[in-house]
Amino acid sequence: MQRYYRGHLAGDEAVKTAAIRWLRAEYPTKTEARQDLGVRTIIDDNSLYDYLKLFARFVKIAGYAGLLVCLDELVVLSHRLNNRVARNNNYEAILRIVNDCMQGDVRNLGFIFAATDECLTDKRRGLFSYEALASRLAGNRFAQGGLVDLSGPVLTLPNLTPEDFYVLLHNIRRVHSGGDETKQVLSEEGIEAYLQSCAQRLGASYYQTPRELIKDFIDLLNTLRQNPSADWRALIGNIKTANVPTIDPSETAASPDDDLATFKI
Q1: Which tens digit of pLDDT belongs to each residue from 21-69?
Q2: CA 18 centroid distance within chain
Q3: Residue 235 DSSP SS3
Q4: CA dihedral for 72, 214, 156, 167, sign (positive or negative)
């Protein structure tokens, strides 16, 4: 931070760029960082979490409430990272974060991890394969039969319903038009026709895995905006999507490090 501030006062873009590079943990060696900034440390895998806590304090000093770190696609660790030792090392890092947050040892810093059900509960490769995480992230045994507990560390999100998807498309259209109803390029009838097309082509899966369909909807809005003479009925009728790509953990390659991965009878 000091190096960046000094570079800012001196108008030295090279120092400012180097400081930002250091904050992004992009320096591979301490020698290179020392040559550019005169520092003797770098942010690496072992110190990243500690520096995030330090950075959160700077964010607080700058006038914000704190720093929120969002980590998406946690399934990459559980079902794409085949080496068991590497997975456990990552789970150990997550355990440290969970412990600190649950015990109140961090300030002005929060974490959101996004994971699939398999990534969490798979006892062979998921987070629950790490015993310490399994005990800390286990759900409330009393929150069953429609009862919920939103105070725990894990929030289970239900699949989108058709009604949710309907509201979502309206919100996307509103954002796309900048909140100006006069600039909306697709009518209410068009949204309903798009939903009907999704239901006919994909069945119930269209609202369970909506990523590709949301992308198609935005592409439809972009096309209509840039081609005012285009007919939305013809565009929707020409969509040929027959399936939605999903991540299937069972299709990931097995590793010799995994228990029984190569066991045969």
Answers
A1: 999 999 999 999 999 999 999 999 889 999 999 999 999 999 999 999 9
A2: 28
A3: helix
A4: positive
